[in-house]
Amino acid sequence: MANDFGFHVTTTRFDEDYTPSTSSRITTNFANLARGEQRQQNLRRALTMIDRRFNDLADWDNPSGDRYAVEIEIVSVELEFAAEGDDRRFPLLEMLDTTIVDLWTGERRRGILGNSFSSYVRDYDFSVRLPAVSAEAGGFTLPEDFGDLHGKLFQHFLGSAAYRERFAQSPVICISVSTSRTYRRTDDRHPILGVEYQQDDQSLTDEYFAKMGLRVRCFMPRGSVAPFAFYFRGDLLNDYTDLQLIGTISTMEAFQKIYRPEIYNANAAAPSVYKPSLEQQDFSRTQIDYDREERSRLAITQGRFTQQHLIEPHREALAQWAADHPALVG
After folding, report:
1. Taking the CB of residue 161, how many other CB atoms lie within 10 A of it?
2. C-alpha closest to that of 328 among 162, 158, 207, 167
3. Beta strands at 183-190 and 172-176: parallel, antiparallel or unpaired
4. SS3 for 90?
5. Could you tell me how far CA 50 lies from the centroid of its own chain?
6. Distance CA 100, CA 73 (A)
7. How far, in Å, CA of 26 to CA of 38, rounded?
8. Environment class of residue 37 by beta-carbon count within 10 Å: exposed (0-12), middle (13-18) or buried (19+)?
């Protein structure tokens, strides 16, 4: 393997006929929904949830609440090595890209890339490397360079020609708030993102994403029952249009209601001082099948796959590449 490599990008339409590819990271929210006997029904219901929530938030000049539809593509990124032979390409990460369709005018607007972020290297870091280092040390131990390689790979993808040819803006990754942190409501309120919450300290995920060049702010949009963590570069509040932000909110709220109903489909909204918990009992389940336990098991399987096909065979070259490529400034 050469000490440098490129990125290969492909896209797949996410609709009710979607079937995960053999290289797709199957622990992702969208891939998990597309499996089993109820797969098409799951997908149809999830997409309906997204469209309804979008129209709920985009309520101006939309009296019937059906003006907009959200189209979604899965963006798959492979690490492409210059050397020939086995493991020449490795599935690096996946994100969702949205397009907002105005059904009245036919106009199509670019949404925000990011949404449901997934990464094989992240699986390796959290599900294989971190447990192994902690077990050897006899207690939780964070490796000094934890997340460095992943962060540099992500940042260099954003700076690559493969990214710039397709995407004009930086991604926004929207995920659940951490159950290890406490969040306090502020007086700041954005017309789309909603009320801002501030956390008592950085989570491990915050630190990991910081190495990707991303910082975090937490907002609870109108009609939501818990804040979301938005990871971004630049200016989250001013770099994107209202409709773009609504596309991200509606997409990720649907997935989080399915995946973490204890937090995002709770029957009461988050109070001014909020500690998220998956032990919460006062919540409603969606009518969409989702195997959360299987998702956790597969993260370990895919972390080991990464260890076998990327980390171990290319360890020296990856280390040299990381040493030669400093982290970029977001």
Report:
1. 9
2. 158
3. unpaired
4. strand
5. 16
6. 12
7. 16
8. exposed
The residue behind tokens 């690490």 is 79
CA atoms within 13 A on the CB side of 302: 24
The per-residue pLDDT for 317 is: 85
The pLDDT of residue 26 is 47
Three-state secondary-structure class, residue 73: strand
Q: What is the DSSP string of 135-180?
A: HHHTS----TTTTHHHHHHHHHHHTSHHHHTT-SS--EEEEEPPTT
Q: What is the mean pLDDT for each group of 10 consecutive residues in the chain (330 residues)?
A: 76 84 51 65 91 98 98 93 67 94 98 91 94 94 93 95 95 95 97 97 94 97 98 96 98 93 96 96 84 69 91 88 72
One-letter amino acid of 17: D
The alpha carbons of the chain give a radius of gyration, in whole angstroms, of 20
Task: Please state, in angstroms and as integers, the Cα–Cα distance from residue 237 to each residue in 71, 123, 210, 240, 330, following that order.
Answer: 23, 30, 19, 7, 16
Q: Which helix (H) or strand (E) holds 11?
A: strand 5-14
Residue 187 is encoded by which pair of tokens?
Answer: 């007086």
At which residue do the structure tokens 């969409």 appear?
288
**Contact assessment for residue 78 and residue 310, using Cβ atoms and an 8 Å cutoff:** no
**In the block, which residue shows the tokens 């492979």?**
78
